[in-house]
Amino acid sequence: MSFDALADKQNADGGWPYRRGSSWTEPTAYAALAMLAAGEKARARKAIAWLRGLEGADGGWRPRPGVEDSTWVTALVALVPREEFGAAAHDRAVGWLVDVTGAESGAVVRLRSWLLGEAPNPDARFAGWPWMEGSAAWVEPTALAILALEREPERRNARLRAAEGRRFLMNRRCSSGGWNHGSTHAVGYATKEYPESTGRALAALAGEPKAALERSIGLARGFLDESRSADAINWLRLGLTAQGAPLERYRPPEEVVYRMVPEIALDLLLSAGPAGYSLLLGNPAAGGRR
Amino acid sequence: MTHAVTRRKWIAGAAGAATMAAGCARPSAPRAASVSIVRAPAYDQTLYDTVRRVLALQRLEVSGRHVVIKPNLVEYEPESAINTSPLVVHAALEGFRALGAASVRIAEGPGHRRNTLDLAEAAGYFRLVPHFEDLFVDLNLDDVSAVPLPRPFSRLKRLYLPHTVLGADLVVSLAKMKTHHWVGATLSMKNLFGTVPGGVYGWPKNVLHWAGIDESVADLHSVYGRQFAMVDGVVGMEGNGPIQGKARPVGVLVAGRDPVAVDATCCRIMRIDPLRLGYLRMAAESGAPLAEAHIRQTGENIAAVATQFELVPEFRALRLEGG
């Protein structure tokens, strides 16, 4: 994808739409990272200014203007480098991520379950992140929160939450070795994995022992060969790179259509080499952050 | 600019209407409804005439109106019985156009997969619906407004909902006839979950699960204004639906202006007791017809097309007596 394809979609308010129309936090955060990787500081700063206006009263970030609740997009905002975003706002985003867990592993639900004499919920053993507070944790918001918190090595509580988040991801791995939205079973039946979720989880699990992820990495390689989804290809590339798999020669198939701003921005970031990868994985060596 | 102002007024009006509807909703005496059951033995070109016949039976007036068709598009399984057939969707699109609708759009917000257009492509929508991409709105990423729920069934006090649906003159829930492992059956009312924006609530829209699935279905049914329900029962899904069940051919389309009556009729065709489905009971509190005596069937009668759907053990108590 060309840089212009992304730049042309920037709205006058500084944000980006998902495809066209009004600005949302998710595409704007990815586009801001792509602009930083491309050295387009003016566009990035305009985007960052728009993002800063979306902070909620609780220190989290709202997904778009007009929505009052803070959501998972806070992790994407926390991926914007502290020195670019502003230290105080960045730290509030990180603080929000540290504090928020899926409701199933929260004290209220655990106490209720204990009082009712219910068997412990195996899915609540490890705290992940929800899409929105008051609901359960899922794979994608957890993977993105881990990516954000791994970049805060000086904050002990961030390290601890990220480590528990990785255990959450391992616990939600499908029997095939891949991941989906976060359910390994539905009414006793094993569920199918998704390519894009498998890529996201592998990106967040950088540094985990290779033996534990061998099957997952093999599955992701197969997905990458077969997939024609821009989103899936982006995340598989990132996930496999995070796992140290060489992809220098990989080029997406020509028939892949990059329609959405997050797809275009991620492709540009991945095409930017170490400068792009480091904005997502935190380490230009791209083979584990710990 | 004129269009934008009009649209905002529409949305404000829709929200207001929803507020009023919910505020004076319960309890009421059941009203009568008409539901059409029409045979549709296969996914072929005869569906176009079949859909037109259904719309004629229902005497829908949509001339000059803006219609939004909301199919059930869930997973990447082109030959499975998970998704509403794209042929049925196209037949409905053509049917509403033939009735003089000012615009007909297709809109969906899948609950698991984020790549809605990739999903639609894999499910055959691009191939079978000409200019699909121009007609389609991804409801997960549409502009939204907060709609209050003054007397909710769930614990939610408001929902952010997409402008495309709030601004429609007629919302057509074009669902699939399936069993569902959490609520028993997913038909036209449960299909409205796909109007809740993932861009706000996530994938899945788990806030609705925590608020109560049955209750959230009933809330969604209450917030939208003029609705029309059509259920693709050409081939349904039984057992562990809505994704992992088995295909179950029934060979019907079921449609009507009252989603509660349409879903109750579908249940009876599937040999499920609609009086035992939580969200149908809740919606019936506002006077929607649930009892067979209050639903006038046109086309086929239920007995002629009844097809027992296998139920997961947790839901065997839903079986219609005598089924």
Give the proportion of residues in helices of chain A. 40-55%
Terminal residue distance of chain B? 57 Å
Architecture of chain B in CATH?
3-Layer(aba) Sandwich
CATH superfamily of chain B: LarA, N-terminal domain
Tally of helical segments of chain B: 13
Order of helices and strands of chain B: HEHEHEHHHEEEHEEHHHEEHHEH
Task: Give the helix tally of chain A.
Answer: 14
Gross geometry of chain A: globular
CATH domain fold name of chain B: Rossmann fold
| Contiguous uncertain segments of 5+ residues of chain A | 284-288
Unreliable stretches covering 5 or more consecutive residues of chain B: 1-25
Count the domains of chain B. Answer: 1
Class of secondary structure makeup of chain B = alpha/beta
Strand tally of chain A is 2
Shape designation of chain B = globular
Structural class of chain A: mainly alpha
Based on DSSP secondary structure assignment, what is the total number of beta strands of chain B?
11
List the secondary-structure elements of chain A in sequence, H or E: HHHHHHHHHEEHHHHH
Which class of chain B in CATH terms? Alpha Beta
What profile does the largest beta sheet of chain B have?
Answer: 9 strands, mixed
What is the chains' assembly state?
Answer: heterodimer
